[in-house]
Specification:
The complex is a heterodimer of chains A (281) and B (279). With 281 residues, chain A is of the alpha/beta class. Chain A has one domain: P-loop containing nucleotide triphosphate hydrolases (Rossmann fold, 3-Layer(aba) Sandwich). Helix content of chain A is 40%, strand content 25%. Chain A has 10 helices and 10 strands. In chain A, strand 4 and strand 5 form a beta hairpin. Chain A is globular. With 279 residues, chain B is an alpha/beta fold. Chain B contains 12 helices and 11 strands. In chain B, helix 4 crosses helix 5, helix 5 crosses helix 7 and helix 7 runs parallel beside helix 8. Classes of the chains: A alpha/beta (281), B alpha/beta (279). The interface between A and B is large, with 38 and 39 residues. Chain A: One of its GO terms (cellular component) is plasma membrane. Chain A: This is ABC transporter ATP-binding protein.
Chain lengths: 281, 279
């Protein structure tokens, strides 16, 4: 199996400038994270707010340069602080963001949203750009007549489809998805997860899937990394991690996740009845 | 007898393109000390019906109901003075964005004391003491110090605790919580839900929990109302709902949960609706 993306000892420091009252300080948001993802696989990065999961995602997506450690894409070390990524490298890695209301330019027509990556990174002629954009719209479950519409004319789920379509325009190897279904309703979430699974099969895509939702992770991931305060506290295959979580934080996360299991509900209802009966006596 | 009783509630909004029915003939009732979950996706009207009870809807909304009573009193026919005594005292509400619900310019202590002074007529000194008690009972660490903190100095979970403290200040008989944990991390969500449930039991108040999250429903509710596009699809006690959902929409919603996935694909609710339309 080919390793598509690998991180070794990745760190990220944010410098907080001193103001009138405070001193300048450095916050280490990611503290030395290792991982590797093989072609066609999905690595889920799970954590709570402030865990550094999105910071890590931005490093992997070649948006922010890491402060330390090495990031390799298809075996080639990449450091975007030294050299701007080539169009070829940019085409390999694309990102989908959480909020489809914020990640699409409200003044840009959907067709232009999809064609822009091609304009910037390739020399494909205009007519073919349009053709490809229309084909991609169809592929993600929209229609070619949506080409000339603006983002506000679409629902949240449709917008996330547009964001996914934009990410796929350059035939990437790796898609970094930062909470792609968190802002969506349950039914729409199911549609988008299905779409992501189909696209992964069809284009042999590799996913890095950032999420706080363990039930989604359990459904979509091959491997899981649990991150807390910038440290990867536990990593493993989905089966191993869900069957037998080792780290205390992972267990805490599992315990806090609501379960919809009928037996668990039966037990809770029974406990409550008992407590009420006891209170009534 | 039920505490809150609503029959055939309809809420219409006047829009530029004509009237829009956000809630269409919904019945809601909640008993003393009961936890009712109203669950639905966005646009299901789950918040609007409770905002109608609280009188928090804009002027463009037209509210009609065959019955809307709280403890036998008709909510729709209250004088403004009576309404002020009921809403904010006997019925209180908390919202999804705790940080946005608080005024950033005042300390949280000032804001909770304001509730106590204006609503309950307490003196400054009494209000201070009671605020401290309330902060302790909702589990805010270092309550003395935190009374002097501004909302931005507290985390989202702590702000929600402050909101809950304000909401229970008057010993309400009904607390309406509109997506109280949606903006919070799962570990914080668990803490807040545990807090709401223990307060609910200690104070014996009824709780209406508005949510889109089936997990939250499973962990808290006694009884559940499922809403879709302003209409009530199903009402059942929590165990029957999960064990043996009657309405096809409820079944589809439960099947769309990733943890219930069988095979590679998740059934989606719109697939269900398409199948329904074919019939």
């Amino acid at each position: 199996m080919t390793v598509i993306v690998e991180g070794r000892g990745l760190t990220q420091d944010y410098h907080v400038p001193g103001g009138l009252f405070g001193r300048a300080k450095t916050v280490r948001a990611v503290k030395g994270v290792d991982f590797r993802v093989e072609r066609g696989k999905t690595l889920a990065i799970v954590g709570e707010s402030g865990s550094g999961k999105s910071t890590l995602a931005r490093i992997i997506a070649l948006i922010d340069p890491q402060s330390g450690g090495t990031l390799s894409i298809e075996g080639q070390p990449v450091d975007i602080s030294r050299r701007r990524p080539s169009p070829e490298l940019r085409s390999k890695v694309q990102m989908v963001f959480q909020n489809p209301y914020g990640s699409l330019n409200p003044r840009q027509k959907v067709g232009d949203v999809l064609m822009e990556p091609l304009v910037i990174n390739t020399s494909i002629p205009a007519s073919e750009r349009r053709e490809r954009a229309e084909a991609m719209l169809k592929r993600v479950g929209l229609a070619p007549e949506h080409f000339n519409r603006y983002p506000h004319m679409f629902s949240g789920g449709q917008r996330q489809r547009i964001a996914i379509a934009r990410a796929l325009m350059l035939n990437p190897q790796l898609l970094v998805l930062d909470e792609p279904v968190s802002a969506l309703d349950l039914s729409v979430q199911a549609q988008v997860l299905n779409l992501l699974a189909d696209l992964q099969d069809e284009f042999k895509l590799t996913y890095v899937f950032v999420s706080h939702d363990l039930s989604v992770v359990r459904y979509i991931a091959d491997d899981v990394m649990v991150i807390s305060k910038g440290v990867a506290v536990e990593q493993g295959t989905r089966e191993a991690l869900f069957a037998n979580p080792q780290d205390a934080y992972t267990r805490q996360l599992f315990a806090a996740t609501p379960v919809t299991d009928v037996e668990a509900i039966r037990a809770r209802v029974a406990r409550r009845k008992q407590a009420r009966a006891a209170a009534a006596v | 007898m039920s505490l809150l009783n609503i029959r055939n509630l309809t809420v219409e909004f006047a829009t530029a393109t004509g009237a829009f029915k956000a809630v269409d003939g919904v019945d809601v009732s909640v008993d003393k000390g009961e936890v009712l979950a109203i669950v639905g996706e966005s646009g299901s009207g789950k918040s609007v019906s409770m905002l109608a009870v609280m009188g928090l809807l804009p002027d463009t909304a037209t509210i009609t109901a065959d019955e809307m009573t709280f403890d036998g009193r008709d909510i729709l026919r209250l004088t403004p003075a009576e309404r002020r005594k009921l809403i904010g005292h006997e019925i209180t509400m908390i919202f999804q964005e705790p940080v946005a619900s608080l005024n950033p310019s005042f300390t949280v202590g000032f804001q909770i004391e304001e509730v106590l002074r204006l609503n309950l007529g307490m003196s400054r000194r009494d209000a201070r003491a009671r605020a401290l008690d309330l902060f302790r009972s909702v589990g805010i660490p270092e309550p003395e110090t935190k009374l002097n903190a501004y909302p931005h100095q507290m985390s989202g979970g702590q702000c929600q605790r402050v909101m809950i403290a304000m909401a229970i200040a008057s010993n309400p008989r009904l607390l309406i919580a509109d997506e109280p944990t949606t903006a919070l991390d799962v570990t914080i969500q668990k803490q807040i839900l545990d807090l709401l449930m223990s307060l609910q039991e200690d104070y014996g108040m009824a709780l209406i929990l508005i949510t889109h999250d089936m997990g939250v429903v499973a962990e808290t509710a006694d009884r559940v109302v499922v809403q879709y596009k302003g209409r009530r699809m199903e009402e059942a006690d929590v165990l029957s709902l999960f064990e043996n959902p009657q309405h096809p929409y409820t079944r589809a919603l439960l099947a769309a949960l990733p943890e219930n996935a069988t095979g590679d694909r998740l059934p989606t609710v719109s697939e269900f609706l398409l199948a329904e339309d074919m019939k």
